[in-house]
Amino acid sequence: MTTISENPTAPATPATTEATGLIGFIPVHIARALTLGGGALTVASCFLAWTWTARFPGDLTVYGYPGGLQLQVLVAGLLTTLFALSSYGIKGTRWLTPAGADGAVKLAALAAFATAWYTVAAISIQLGGPVNLEPGGAVVAVATLLALVGALALPFERPATHPADPEDSGWDQFKHRASNGLTSFKAAFGTTGTPRRLPPLPTPVEILIIAGVLAVALGVFTYGIGTEYDELFIGFLITAGFGFAAVNKSGLLQQATQLTGKHQNLTIAGAFIAAALFPFTQTDDQYATLGVYILIFATVALGLNIVVGLAGLLDLGYVAFLGVGAYAAALVSGAPTSPFGVHLPFWAAILVGAAASLVFGVLIGAPTLRLRGDYLAIVTLGFGEIFRIAVMNTDGTSGPDITNGSNGIASIPNLDFFGFDFGAEHTIAGFTIGRFANYFFLMLLIMAVVVLVFRRSGDSRIGRAWVAIREDETAALAMGINGFRVKLIAFALGAALAGLAGTVQAHVTYTVTPEQYLFAGPIPPNSAFLLAAVVLGGMGTMSGPLVGAALLFLIPNKLQFMGEYQLFAFGLALVLIMRFRPEGIIPNRRNQLEFHEKDETPATLAKAGA
Known about the structure:
Layout: H1 28-45, H2 69-87, H3 102-127, H4 135-152, H5 170-188, H6 203-225, H7 230-250, H8 252-262, H9 264-276, H10 286-310, H11 319-331, H12 346-368, H13 373-393, E1 416-417, E2 420-421, E3 426-428, E4 431-433, H14 435-458, H15 461-471, H16 473-478, H17 483-509, H18 527-537, H19 543-558, H20 566-580, H21 589-595
Antiparallel strand pairs: 1-2, 3-4
């Protein structure tokens, strides 16, 4: 007979406590007043001088005109103030927090505090101490601190936790208490209720709201890509990260998702129009260069999303298909280093590049797609390395003279499409459009084609077969799906889309070399970055890989000042994002439920492909 002894001092039920804040000694009414007053004072301090000298980037010496990092603190302060007003239930502000105000206030106050104190610290370090701060710098530091203290004192419903067992060791009790503390800390930033759904609105009003959301997105992207110095970009990352989290906690993002899901085709068309306006917001071709490379990277990532996100095939050598398309187009585009001496028109070269990648996709996929899981990943990784080594050896010495070896194919001419020279400047409606802006518009058209293919294939019968194989291949085969055929179609289609982007990449970079198509490296696109863009953005969705690719290309480009610590900081950021949002930035319905099956069902879920 087995006897079970119980500790009479350990409660059998979880302990519950009354609603208090993380800082429990401040009364609620004083905490709300501190938050509102701190937010308003933060806004006012942004119109004061923060330092006496213009040696700090951004010239923070001007009164009445915020500049540089002051603008970012101003935005965070405005968010804090508006959410704090909404927490009082003031008429005209309650629409700002359909999911509750307290969680949004805390994150907005944290955004203002982190950005302001980062700025104060940067000024002190660069200029030789806090003595270089003007009164405005001290005011913003105190104001953001008061707002954060008040926000953290706002009450929240603490989750039920089990006390530590007195019979456990000291280390086990410490781990238990730390786990309970982390659970309570996460609950402090949670939402207080289910987001209110938008009431029925007239269609023109809904369209105007969608246009406003897209305009804000274009403005944020344009500001981020145009940050002129390192301190400004780091401040942008802090403000944008916490600010986005605050807007998400308020419930506004869920309501925007509700509208964009209702007018999906209109939203996609509006997004492309907003992207097309980007070159017109720039005074030169500098940032259009980043824009066209981001589009190339995003287009390839969306093609990989068909293979990984929809069909569930882990491909670690996908960048090789980009290289096949680039080399194929370079060989037939009239480059002087091409051994073929052929100069096909652009429409023919782009077909050659896509067809070559498609053929290679079929040739590689046919013998390998009968493998599953890690074995398939190893084979695709080998294919990526075989491609790179093969193009290095076809130099006329180690093999036939086709790719010019490690020197690659250089001096690829600019595209000329029906008399339109992509390498020359053109004037459109009084705006001068440079070379990279021309290729930006071309890549935008190609991305529209890729998006159309992704949407139509994802919603088709073959798309549903891909999802079935991704979830359970054995069950899919038992239901009569031809697994090999379906996977081969996904592999070939993804390869063709990558080759399509590769044809433009060859003309944008003037040169294709084997070193551009590595498995991993500090400069995207490479296979590791492409896979990270799909996973980070959200597998199986249309907009997820586009957002992930933009972030993964822009952030390393802006973090070059960190030198050898760049990849460390970048990898740490990815680990944190995957820890706290494993389903990706824009998840689909299934992934969001799978990763949060113990939590409450999300009120608004992103539709796959929306």
